[in-house]
Structure prediction request, 92 residues.
Amino acid sequence: MKLEIITPESSLFKGEVTSVTLPGLDGVFQVLNNHAPIISSLKNGEVVFELSGNETDAEMSNSLIRSGSKVHAIIKGGVAELNNNRLVILAE
Prediction:
């Protein structure tokens, strides 16, 4: 799936991933490829996503923490929208 993480200051990530774990208001949840469409509010926490293996096309900010194929981003809240295998996170 395509993931894009955007803050008011900059774009943190844009690229292909296989899974994303998000800090929803009602708890942590995960989305995978071909997940049903969803819109969710996010709270303070960590967004963790698994790279698909094709990192050459990915645009990644230096503020993200990479551990193998997993990448961690700390957010202060926001909104996530998943539709047609494209997840956009508008984060603070």
Summary: DSSP finds no helices and eight strands in the chain. The radius of gyration is 12 Å. The first strand starts at residue 2 and ends at 6. Residues 23 and 45 are 6 Å apart (CA to CA).
